[in-house]
Amino acid sequence: xxxxxxxxxxxxxxxxxxxxxxxxxxxxxxxxxxxxxxxxxxxxxxxxxxx
Length: 51
Description:
The chain is 80% helix and 0% strand. By secondary structure, it is mainly alpha-helical. The longest helix has 41 residues, at 10-50.
């Protein structure tokens, strides 16, 4: 028989999904920022090497 009343675990699952998505986005953003910094640094070093 189906349980009557509020759904079980839906609030916790939604909250967990939201937090995990936030965490993944944070790591993705940090990775992109790191890559951009390294690219900028490499360009700067190449420019310095040419001079």
